[in-house]
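Re: [help] complex structure
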Amino acid sequence: MSNELRINKNNFIDQTVRISFKFNGKKLFGFKGDTLASALLANDIHLVGRSFKYHRPRGIMTCGSEEPNAIVQIGSDPASTEPNVRATEIELYEGLEAFSQNCWPSVNFDVGGINNLLSPILPAGFYYKTFMWPASFWEKYEFFIRYSAGLGKSPTKADDDLYDHQYAHCDVLVIGGGISGVISAKLAVEKGLDTILIDDKNFLGGSTIYQDEESSKINNANSNQWLAREIESLKNYKNLVIKSRTSLAAFHGYNYLLAREALTDHLSVHERKNKIRQRLWKIRAQKVIIASGSIERPLIFNNNDRPGIILSSSIKKYIDYFGVKTGKNISLFTNNDSAYETAISLSKSGVNVNVIIDIRENSDSNIVKEAQKLGIKILWGHTIVETNGYKRIKSFEAMKLSSNGGNVVGNKIKFNSDCIGISGGWTPMVHLYTQSGGKLQFKSNDNIFIPDETKTPSEQISVGSCNGDFELDDVVNNTIYNVKKFISLDKSSYDKINVTCSKESSKKNIWLLPSDKPLYKTKPFLDFQNDSTAKDVKLALREGFKSIEHVKRYTTTGMGTDQGKLSNMHALGIIADTTGTNMGELGTTTFRPPYTPLTFGTIVGRNVGKFFDHTRKTAIHNWHVDNKAEFENVGQWKRPWYFPKNGETMHEAVQRESKAARESAGILDASTLGKIDIQGSDASEFLNRVYTNAWSKLAIGKCRYGLMLNEDGMVYDDGVTTRLAENHYIMTTTTGGAANVLSKLEDYLQTEWPELDVYLTTVTDQYSTISICGPNSKNIIKKIIPDLNLSDENFPHMSFKNSKIDGVNCRIMRISFTGEHSYEINIQSNYANDVWKACMDAGKEFNITPYGTETMHLLRAEKGFIITGQDTDGTLTPSDLQMDWIISKKKYDFIGKRSLYRSDTIREDRKQLVGLLTDDPKEVLEEGAQLVEDINKKPVEMLGHVTSSYYSPNLNKSIALAIVKSGKKMKGKKLIVPMEEKNINVTITDTVFYDKENKRLNA
Amino acid sequence: MFIINCPYCGKRDQVEFSCGGEAHIERPKQPTELSDDQWAEYLFMRKNIKGVQFERWNHTHGCRKWFNMVRDTSNDKIHATYKMGEKPPIK
Ligand SMILES: [Zn+2]
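Output below.
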């Protein structure tokens, strides 16, 4: 392949391995080691996308994670396509397919480009000002905004890839494999510490590894050669783990860090099969060394966003690392020395360096002299005032800066160039440091925020350029000194290191460079991804925004997927200049994790599908499945909801089940109810304190219903507790409340009443519960346990018997949640399925009917029994539920007692539980529906709402429970349930609808 | 994510624990003797300190024991953990 933009001299790209890929449908070629961006540039493709708001053509601007423009969609498979991928970070692989985002119909002809012409009417806050008013129009605007905004396409099918989570523990974690990271890791392993070194690239060495210059030397070798040998030497240490292609996502307190390792993203699609795509490392490190480096700043000048305008250091990386020329006639625009390194690299590679525009008056550092020796033209004290070229930079105009830098003077000088390298200095990457809680200080000579070592959380340091050291000698010497101190290392192999490099001698910074045109006629872009300009920031300030956080949101500066890595410092600088404040006092916006975007797959790891949450199944679950139950989720439990027969609807099934349970026999799997075994000499006293009613006198072998309150007097849970022996009870709780009730009881035992001799054990899973109810329940139990005396005298309602079924111990409780004569069989769970089947066989002649939670709810509602969590919501006292009978008057104290006569809880106009009957007995109310008295008085007063509502087949009418203000006093009163289409008339009744005399319990 | 030193089990990850709010608030022994205001003080009023705070924690997914913790809410530094009923080792 002949390619005039490739040079054939480097160690990093394997030019023997050709890789084919597609960009916007066009087949192209690159080499092994390329990123998508370097391969595109080698194919002379700069234009890769359109900007967010004005749809201006945008090109590749950087070579790393700070890239604002080259954001692409990878792949077209509906399950694996990925939006918002930075072309500068993705490694080229065979068959890679990438598409431009944010352009329609194509990147070369984009309809939204019209926004660029409309830009005078699209200022800061435009979306807020225009589309938010009138509010009702938002729905109409939204479609068009979202369509043209185009932030990539989400996958439409489930992600097939595998993701993993793994924990790692180490003495030292080094973040960043550039020169300071490599030195830090070497020192740590020399000390004998277990060390992990992570770097987001596939190759260690940062920017020094291609820094092949005579002017920067370490121990008399060029710095790149020295570093290559150091990296090689790291392989000898068994106590070092190097993780490349691993980027740090978050740095939390207590040195808990999250890192994403990309395992297959660089492989061709067929090589990825059955491999884990990405792994999230959860790292606990005793000590953390941040060596995250710095990124180059752009310069802010008129029309600084054209394709072909690239960060100067990125041009250097493309030429020195990837062997790619970003243009044939390149100019540089700078305020510091680093652009000169780029100029020298380009010149040595045979690329014409047209001119260096330097805003400084002069510089006599070695590197500048070296550039001058190569014959590179430098224009001191000048700035670029205009650039030309729509889809690719063609030319630019420069003018001399006035002495104070606020204006331009003299004549315009025009230069032709197909690429401009810009360098506005360097920004230390302090994101991770601040995420961990560290505070920053402002260093005004370099206009940078760096870690304030007096306000740094313990057990971490920042080294290298992320700590504000930009010159090689400072980086190396300070890293060695600081790391040795940090890990208490006395001697190291670096103690006699000798570093020489060019030293920068002059500095100048202008956040917003002037043009010969007035500001309002220029487009000096700040945030390239979100299309906000310096004008927008100034407008926001004029409109009264002062806080950096507010300006950021109003102008959307720094709110793209790059989180403003390139733009934040300039925004701050312009705010400081405009308002006359010091940048250090302004502070920065908050840096939040993740440092670079993470896929959802990586975040959730293996916790998908059936692993998303635990599923609890009863011992009888398979029988329910075999018998076509529909299931309901109750907490983590799968409970049979109803058992439809012959294509019945839910309503039909529930009506049938409910009738059968009252007419003959119904059977329910009640195993999910919480069961707590309570033992100890103070067990009775303990129950006295946790339930509202009295327990001391409950005879052995008897059961009692109890209501448990919170300390605020509100109903918390309920259930039946049975006294098995003198100091032994078994408590049942609601299904959903089981874990919380146990925790609450443990809390009281451990912290308030440690003097009580009581032991709590959860036995919910150990015992299964089969409930048989209905007039024939007795006959069925008689068949299964023939020798048990079921007479009311021997075995009355609310009592229990130890018994055996086929030789297996079980507890039979005669308790009822349906109002029917009923029994609960409690048996060790591994026998439950067999016992259930035995019950079904025995009940066959009585048409025993399995029922689910819906019928259970209906039957108990006919009896007016509450379900905590459905009829209660944590705001109702026992009295509100018309259950005053359950409050012991004699007990001195129990949980919540004192709250029952607070001024608020004794109010008579509290919401109270009532029954409701609809005037039309066929009309079934919606649960949650509001209750009102006077529909015409505005505003309509809401008196309460419906909590439970069913059609009762046993009463042949609709019944409901509700909570209503002053409901206790309202029996017989007519209320209205206003619905969308009609108003439903209802009458307040007693809460018990069926068998008010409880005759059926003993039927 | 803290590393918490359970007084019974030793150092464990925060995911094993749950926080139970302010520590050293004793349930009144004779609630019926209290006025509404006094009872409300116990029931509702909790400090929300920026700085050193005494908290109840439970080793929920471990030994299930409750214990107390001295934590600086401004920087999440845990100064001490100690068993229920013990006096705080720090004032
Ligand atoms: Zn523990």
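Chain B is about 10% helix and 35% strand.
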